Amino acid sequence: MAREQRRALLELLQRPGNAQCADCGAPDPDWASYTLGVFICLSCSGIHRNIPQVSKVKSVRLDTWEEPQVEFMALHGNDAARAAYESQVPSFHYRPTFSDCHLLREQWIRAKYERQEFTNPERQEPYSAGYREGFLWKRGRDNGQFLSRKFVLTEREGALKYFNRNDAKEPKAIMKIEHLNATFQPAKIGHPHGLQITYLRDNSTRNIFTYHEDGKEMVHWFNALRAARFHYLQVAFPGASDTDLVPKLTRNYLKEGYMEKTGPKGPASGQPAGPWHTDPQQTEGFRKRWFTMDDRRLMYFKDPLDAFARGEVFIGSRESGYTVLDRLPPSTQGHHWPHGITIVTPERRFLLACETESEQRAWLDAFRKVVDRPMLPQEYAVEAHFKHKP
């Protein structure tokens, strides 16, 4: 009898929609919630276990199934659950994948099944109202300590602000929605709810590192920022569809990690980045630095949690004279790491070195994705600004 139930479940997995996890899209799910009627992956099953009042899970292959439970799964399935529990997901709301952090996946699952936010739009008010204020822990630029700071997001003013004191009348910083990005960085920040917010100041990137003890609150802030970006872009590009706009709301970095670089030291700590020059007749030694590839901006930092980059370089397209080589010039000296990369721009070369071959391949893949992508009209203006930095 048990063998028949298992065979029936395996057949259900072949139905359309059931071959991917109902919550994160991971392929070949081998767990299921027999109270919700969905097939899920091992990782998401652990989150479901934490909401037993809503979801009870079993392994498709290892656990014993009763016939009524199998029949329930047959009557439901992933597509039916998606139609029921995701019927009113706002276009701007982030839909996590299996590569996203635990917090995003957990809060997506809780929002769907426990809080039922996407069948009751009034429960979306915390991130869809166009205004949000509250306190986040923010890392100090100079001392590295996290202190509680008041943040205010206002779509009407098109800005996110934070204040150094509760009674302060003027904000410490005003971040325009137009140039704002947010990405979860739990490992870098050292907190499972860590959110990195970036914005442009004088066309240089500024980083702010935050977290909230309550994971739901942090994800609500994230989606509120996405909502503000979405509504800004709808006005800026009135003819664009939601499908065109949603990928522009927030972005994860293409690649981050340590490499060695040669060139000048860059500005003093706490100062915005200037241009990153490399002498073609390289004589200066290599230094280990933290690099971030953010769309077409390659930035380097002395420390991953620096507020400002020490230097930035724009990486354009192949048609505009940019190439990436998997080696250093033969005369290069002073690098400790053996796996070289040369970025060639119309003006100069940038010399980098990776510790391992796998890291070199990963960086080359990231650089080549950018170089192989044609530039958009607005990106030519960004490129021109980089060329004319003093």
From TrEMBL:
Keyword vocabulary terms for this entry: Cytoplasm, GTPase activation, Metal-binding, Repeat, Zinc, Zinc-finger
Ranges where the record places region Disordered: 260-281
UniProt xrefs under SUPFAM superfamilies: ArfGap/RecO-like zinc finger (SSF57863), PH domain-like (SSF50729)
Arf-GAP domain residues: 6-126
Signal peptide interval: none
Superkingdom assignment: Eukaryota
Main location: cytoplasm
Example of a GO MF term: phosphatidylinositol bisphosphate binding
Domain PH: 129-230, 252-372
UniProt entry tagged with the keyword Ion transport: no
Localization per Swiss-Prot or TrEMBL: Cytoplasm
PANTHER family xrefs: ARF-GAP WITH DUAL PH DOMAIN-CONTAINING PROTEIN 1, ARF-GAP WITH DUAL PH DOMAIN-CONTAINING PROTEIN 1-LIKE PROTEIN
Identification of the protein by name: ArfGAP with dual PH domains 1
Organism the protein comes from: Rhinolophus ferrumequinum
